[in-house]
Amino acid sequence: MSGLWSKRRWLPPFIAALIAAGLQTAALGYMVESRASILRNGKEVLLKTVPVDPRDLLRGDYVILSYDVSWLAPELFKGEWPTAPEETTVFVRLAKQADGFWGASEASFKPLAPTEGSVVLQSQPFTFYPSASENPSSINVAYGIERFYVPEGEGRVLEQARNAEALSVSVRINNAGRAQIRQIAVEGTPVYEETLY
After folding, report:
1. Alpha-carbon distance 61 to 149, whole Å?
2. CA 125 to chain centre
3. CA distance 146 to 51
4. What are the tens digits of pLDDT across the range 55-93?
5. What is the pLDDT of residues 108-165, one digit of tens each?
6. Do 185 and 171 meet the contact criterion of CB atoms below 8 Å apart?
7. Domain spans of the chain?
8. Would 93 disulfide with which of 106, 154, 183, 195, CB 3.0-4.6 Å?
9. Is residue 161 a contact partner of residue 187, using CB atoms and an 8 Å limit?
C-alpha cells in the first residue's frame, strides 16, 4: 500500500518538466511585459547624463550612465530624514526645465503625490547612513537606468559624446515611478532606440 501511495504522490518527470518550463516562461513573459508596459505607457522625460564607460566581458560593451538627478542636494528634500541606518528609497519629482531637460524639483523619503506638469521617479532601494554633519553635500541614488548595453566596440562613441557633454537619454517613467531607457541621443540625434519586445 505504501509503495502505491509513493508512486501516486510524485509527478511523472515529463509532466514536472512541462510545469517547470511553463513557470519559467510565465516569469520571463512577466519581466518582458512589465518593461514593455513602461516603454509603451510611461511619461517621457529627457535627462542630462555624465556616463562612465566600463566593459563587461560577459555581455559586451555597455555604458554606465550617471544623471544630474542622481545627485540630490539636501535642500530638495521635504519631510523627515531617516535617523538611523536603514534600507530606503527616495522619491524625486522631476519638472521640465527651459532647456528641454527634466530636473529634480523636490525629493522625499516618503511617496510624493502626483502634480500637474511633473513626474515622480522612484530610486532603487539603498542603505541610507545618516551623516554625522547636519548638512550632507548630496545624496547619490540610482534608478535602475544606469547601464545601457551597446553592440561590441560601440561604447567608445558614447564615451566620447559624454566627454563632449553631447549625450542625452530619453526615459519613460510609469505611475509607480519605475523607469526604462527609451532612447540614447548624441547632440540630439538618436543613435540607439529600445524596442518594446
Report:
1. 6
2. 11
3. 8
4. 555 456 788 888 999 999 999 999 999 989 999 999 999
5. 999 999 899 999 999 999 999 887 555 678 899 999 999 888 887 788 888 788 778 8
6. no
7. 2-33, 42-193
8. 106
9. yes
Which H or E run contains 157?
Answer: helix 155-163
Q: Which of 40, 65, 41 is nearest to 155 (CA)?
A: 65
The SS3 call for residue 38 is helix
C-alpha grid cell, residue 19 = 510545469
Q: Is 22 helix (H, G, I), strand (E, B) or coil?
A: helix
Which of 167, 164, 193 lies closest to 181, judged by CA? 193
Q: Which three cell numbers stand for residue 85?
A: 541606518
Mean pLDDT of 29-55: 75
DSSP 36-89: HHHHHHSEEEEEEB--B--EETTTEEEEE--BGGGEE-GGGB-SPPPSS-EEE-
* Residue found under cell 509503495: 3
State how far the alpha carbon of 25 is from the alpha carbons of 30, 33, 52, 193, 197, in Å.
9, 12, 34, 26, 15
Q: How long a stretch of residues is the chain? A: 197
Where does residue 154 rank: exposed (0-12), middle (13-18), buried (19+ CB within 10 A)?
A: middle
